[in-house]
Specification:
Layout: E1 8-11, H1 15-26, E2 32-35, E3 47-49, E4 55-57, E5 64-66, H2 69-75, E6 81-82, E7 88-92, E8 95-99, H3 103-109, H4 112-126, E9 131-132, H5 134-137, H6 143-165, H7 174-177, E10 182-183, E11 195-199, H8 203-211, E12 216-219, E13 228-231, E14 234-237, E15 240-242, E16 245-248, H9 252-255, E17 265-275, E18 285-287, E19 296-299, H10 300-304, E20 312-321, E21 332-333, H11 337-349, E22 356-358, H12 361-364, H13 370-385
Parallel strand pairs: 1-2, 1-16, 2-12, 7-18, 16-22
Antiparallel strand pairs: 3-4, 5-11, 6-11, 7-8, 9-10, 13-14, 14-15, 17-20, 17-21, 18-19, 19-20
Helix pairs in contact: 1-13, 3-4
């Protein structure tokens, strides 16, 4: 006798899939089956202790931050928080200065009288605590503002952007370039959101708590594309018609076998290193915008507050183009008009399946932070539950 199908299928158990699965199970009483391709939960937020006993983030550093009280309160059901505010510095020709470039960076780059003069001009033009995209700053006609704009563009923005995206800054969607603005402030925090922190135990434990529900069934090491078939307006799961809700959080082009061509992404190669020293660098993340093939180095003990002496673990990040190989992960959608139009071709294919929803960075081909994905999942749950 065949097992009865679930009410809902969720493809992927990162933030998007886990939140929507919990909501549908808990609030709507649905039987939810999650299919996850990897051997771990939590998506790119998965963390674990390495052989040195250091809690590391397998897919790069993740720092939670949000202005949404709803998101913070929701995730706080499954974790307590370490009070951590992320600070990043950039290695600019051997000198470390805060990133994003701010007034402290300005005074580090120029002698006092000139820095004070430029600071006053920036405050007069934009206002204290304002955030200005570098491409906007470069349009200023004032010679000294233009000079600092060129310094920032050439020493902090240009090469880093080329490494990260494989494109010049003006070839990338303005939403992406605006993510690291010039900050007219003395605040060195990378984020200014109301709620910031790191799960006190681990991200993995947060997800374990979220997925612990009697109506959620989780299957790891499963490629949903081999079990899910979309055909003539109908969804089939394991070759049986499925009339329930499907939430898909993976790459949408790959679900449809890239029939219109592959959507471009950037992937990352992570190189982890263990060092016999208590601290490797002064901050959690040091960016390398003018040299090195890697974009940044993260030292996890700064994030997790682990009090371990004589040993530490770092990771270096090397961006490159995503090719679709089995050992690659698509991390960053390359958003521009051409790629957005290609994505829309794939999204339109889902229109004939009324119970099929796309959710998250990969499925929507947008550069979301984790809190934005959680909020979208909560909003979608509101819509589906009514």
């Amino acid at each position: 006798m065949k097992k009865e199908l679930s009410d809902c299928l969720v493809i992927g158990c990162g933030m998007a899939g886990s939140v929507i699965a919990r909501e549908l199970a808990e609030r709507a009483g649905k039987n939810v089956q999650i299919l996850e391709m990897r051997n771990n939960i939590g998506g790119n937020m998965y963390d674990f202790k390495d052989e040195k006993g250091i809690l590391i983030h397998r897919y790069g550093p993740h720092i939670f931050h949000t202005n949404s009280k709803r998101v913070f309160d929701y995730l706080s059901r499954f974790t307590s928080w370490l009070n951590y505010s992320h600070e990043v510095v950039g290695d600019i020709h051997g000198k470390l200065m805060p990133i994003p470039f701010n007034l402290n960076s300005l005074h580090s780059a120029y002698e006092p009288s000139k820095a004070a003069r430029i600071e006053q001009k920036l405050i007069t033009t934009y206002g204290i605590n304002s955030k200005v995209p570098i491409l906007e700053l470069r349009q200023q006609l004032d010679p000294e503002i233009a000079e600092i704009a060129e310094f920032i563009y050439n020493n902090i923005f240009l090469y880093y952007t080329q490494k990260q995206w494989g494109l010049a800054p003006d070839e990338i969607d303005s939403f992406v370039t605006a993510r690291v603005p010039v900050f007219i402030s003395y605040d060195n925090r990378y984020f200014q959101d109301s709620y910031q922190g790191i799960p006190a135990e681990s991200y993995t434990s947060l997800f374990e708590g979220m997925l612990k529900h009697p109506k959620i069934e989780l299957t790891l090491n499963t490629d949903a594309r081999k079990r899910l078939r979309l055909e003539s307006g109908r969804v089939f799961f394991d070759d049986r018609p499925f009339n329930g809700t499907v939430i898909y959080t993976g790459p949408l082009d790959e679900l449809f076998d890239c029939r219109y061509g592959r959507l471009p992404y950037r992937t990352l190669d992570f190189v982890f290193e263990s060092h016999n020293t208590t601290w490797y660098q002064p901050k959690g993340t040091v960016n390398y915008p003018v040299d090195q093939d890697y974009t940044r180095i993260t030292e996890f003990k700064h994030l997790t507050r682990q009090l371990l002496s004589g040993r530490t673990t770092i990771v270096k990040e090397y961006p490159r183009a995503y090719t679709g190989a089995d050992d690659e992960t698509p991390y960053y959608p390359i958003q521009n008009p051409e790629n957005s139009a290609l994505y829309e071709c794939y999204r339109k294919l889902t229109d004939e399946f009324p119970n099929f929803r796309v959710l998250g960075r990969l499925a929507e081909y947008k550069y979301y932070n984790m809190d934005a994905i959680a909020e979208k999942a909560l909003d979608l749950a509101d819509t589906l539950i009514g």
